[in-house]
Amino acid sequence: MPQKNKILVVDDExxxxxxxxDFLASRFEGKVEVEVAYNGKEAVEKIEQSPQPDCVLLxxxxxxxxxxxxxxxxxxxxxxxxxxxxxxxxxxxxxxxSMMNDAFDYVPKPINFDVLEExxxxxLGQ
Length: 126
Fold this sequence. Notes:
The chain is of the alpha/beta class. It has one domain: Response regulator (Rossmann fold, 3-Layer(aba) Sandwich). About 40% of the residues lie in helices and about 20% in strands. Helix 4 (about 90-100) links the parallel strand 4 and strand 5.
């Protein structure tokens, strides 16, 4: 049986986390394992545990530690993890900052789920 890909959803809004978990469960039907973190600090703790996720859907604006801080801290340590930045702030500067910090990709809110699915498949090499 093939190993499931692990995806970490990081968002301070629990409703967004549930929506993304439901989306991943329906679109990837048993092919992914999904974990959730509700702020950047919790995300760092989960990522530093083993095994690391293959892909992280990372909200940019969060309390405690924002998504760009998480990306700057973890991407150099874990270059194999694909970080997809997710944000309601559709500003070009935030997107460029994410890309310059080696984010794999970027998705604005409200999320277009077909686009998100393509980006996740690309991140997972499928």
